[in-house]
Amino acid sequence: MSEEIKLNAANQELLKQVNDLYPEGSVFVQFHGEKSGYVRHDQATQKTLPGGLFIIVTDLTEPNYTASHELLHLLMLLRGFPQIFFQLSLGDSRLDEQMMIMSTDLYNVAIHRVVVAEQRKHGLINDQVEAEYLKGIEHTLTPEDKADDEEKTLRLLTLLDALVFYGDHLTQYEAQLKAKYPTALAAAQKMYQQLAEKPIQSPFDMRRSIVKTYSLFDQQMQEWGLPALHNNEYTTLSPVLSDRQLRLSLRQVFEIYHSDMKERGTSKRAYVGLRRSDGQNSFTMPAPNPESPEEFKRLYAQPVKEFLEQHSIPYIVRK
Fold this sequence. Notes:
alpha+beta; four-stranded antiparallel sheet; about 50% helix
């Protein structure tokens, strides 16, 4: 067992905030592992055990940075920020797995805008963490060469997340990133510029930022002649609705369409509820019974709130 690690004051405060909101049992932070010398966002895991949730930091390079990262993710979830769900299947488990990983990584890019701002506010990111984060990028990616390679998508994802992490501190690291990954960095910077235009101050802003991240990523994939991910259809993102929208009829806010994808875990074609304003998958549902035009008319006429609650679909009320 390595040296004993204690949570610093900022993390103890975060842990207290998490525990005040956590519904069942308590949340604990444990440290097990070695020091790799670099920082990445896969250096912790979560386990639910009797009595609560355990955040286990598995790399001890920057234990307080890593613990705070996990605690802030959890805190945002507990405070009602939008979540993603995977309820559809492309009919190929390997492909589904890849899609879920990439969708989650893009979702995290948007979430990290808030997480990193909070970490910086609490003094949890210093020059040493920034240098180790750069080592983490170099550990993850190979440098670009002239040949079209398999790593384009991973580079874009990794560097987009890096731009969120470095923010105004990028100038110290930009030359090194540019030397190794010029194409991916330029594409990530173009995306980041558009994402950073609007601040994130509420769950509604966060949802808009997630939808935009999905859409800008697909644009870049297509510019490179690579297949778009279509997370607007594949990934269910919890809707954020005002009281007024909850009173409107379903038809005014959502469009239900018969997807080519299957319901996860069954072989039935799924129905997907797309938000009319941005085309984002907000819920999925089995075929109505009976599957008739009359039944759809009835569903579409229902108030949004009644429909969502009847079908146990999670949503967030816009303040």
